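Worked problem 6 (solution included).
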Amino acid sequence: MCRTSSHRPGKRTLCVLAVLSLLIAGCRADLPDARLAPPIAPIAPIAPIAPIAPAAAAQPGVAALVPGGVGEPLPPPLPAPSVARVDMPAAARPDIVFTDSGGERRSLDDFRGRVVALFFGYTRCPDVCGSTMFELSLAARELADVRDRLSFLMITFDGEHDTPAAMARYVHSFDPGFIGLTGPSKDARALAVNFGAYALHTGAAQGSAQPAWSHSAPVYLLDQRGSWRRTIGAGARAGLMAGAIRELLREAGVVDQTGQADMKPKSSGREYASG
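Solution. The predicted structure is:
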């Protein structure tokens, strides 16, 4: 018969509860104490990936690693500009006549008696012509002590656009003693081919962002007899230009072994007045 909860539990009930308490205590003793467990070691940080050494990436044909993939193989470096020796007499080229800024007719033969630095280009050239003329102007400053033995000429491929006045403005913006020559484009190309130069009209309209002419850009050195003696590679700096010119003056006996002027220049009888 069931009794109400107000009565005290019997001895049998107390025994059962005591046994259950012992069983529970034994189970807890088998469990590991979290306070005694060793701490979990922190996760070591991931080492960053080392970048490719610049020296390795600069080797010709080595693929450059870029974020997200592998780039195209790098092109080989361009060769440094150099000076080539030539020995071609003036008689081997045509004596083509151009017009200077003063309207006077001139050919390369009129500059005999001087060492000539010759460049072919055009005034609207967006890049190499300006940089080459600038380096030539710096070279001319380095050669101030022998400047009266030298002539710096630019012949334009774009004679239909580059009038004598336009040539004068362009070359004199680099050096007031520089000489600009203009004439029909076919005449400039006919002379240039004798120096191994080329020029190709691109068909670009005036005012276009595209260059009007694609052309080679070396500087050619002529000695006092008008013979072609040196070719200075495109992209050369002023120091290389000045050194090649002074060497040619030394070979011609215009300067001594130290590079100092020791004789007056020979004249063809037609002195050129710049400007």
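Discussion: The first strand starts at residue 63 and ends at 66.
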